[in-house]
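User: Structure tokens for both sequences below?

Assistant:
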Amino acid sequence: MRWLGLDVGEKTIGVAISDEEEVIATPLRTLSRHGGMRDLEAVAAVLHELGAGGLVLGLPLQMNGREGDAARRVRDLGQRLATHLRCPVEHWDERFSTVQAERALLEGDLTRRRRRQVIDKVAATIILQSFLDHRSSGMPGQGAPA
């Protein structure tokens, strides 16, 4: 099954896709946020276009592991997506994913403008790859509390 990884921000949603073997995550695109049903439909369109069967949403936990307002907003979006799309929705700890993405892009010597264009989908890729790696390891538990 293919998974979509989502890095949900206030203005954009970074999107990554896995291969069917659930081994490799690849950056896909960045969606603009419009709120409400428009966001649900945008994610639904990508999910159906690529034949993905589930979603992994990065959960922005605080440094102490607790959920703040941002995490509650992502959980709310996840619930609405699960209801709207009738597919599995997982939440995955995304602490440091944007920092990792920024570091990788800096090492790739991308300009500041180009980094801003791709940072969200690269962060979504890091979130999704972490989820896939954990699943393949056979280790119990989740990357984010349920």
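Moving on to the next sequence.
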Amino acid sequence: MTRRAPTAIAATIVALCLGCKGQATKATTADTRQPLALPIEAQDAVRAEMNGMLTSINRILVALPRQDTVSIRQAAAASGLATAADPLLEKLLPEQFLTWGTQTHQGFDELAAFVTTTYAPDSVLLRLGAITQRCVTCHATYRLATR
């Protein structure tokens, strides 16, 4: 892999993480994603959790070209399962949303464990791609309903 390739891949991953919000849609196309009508506090909590995951992804992508495995591991662990939403919020969310969220947090934990024993940039990017694919799928399926 050339030095430029990780940067191009990283830019693609960040673009995917921005998900549906950054995608151009036709003005005549209705948003068919399932609305999640949550209390404002729950919406804030969901957004904060997603923002934390996006921050982790950014920190991983910044550390990757420097081969800074400590920073990669710390960034991944910062979005691991231990940081998942609290049980009260979980009662308000659809089962599929929770499944994808759990798998995403577990993916960060698995990435942190992987980097602890192995440093392979291509494998880190593949794992990060699998994590962000869940983000893209969830964002394509659900949206927070405005009140």
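User: Anything stand out in the second?

Assistant: The mean pLDDT is 85.
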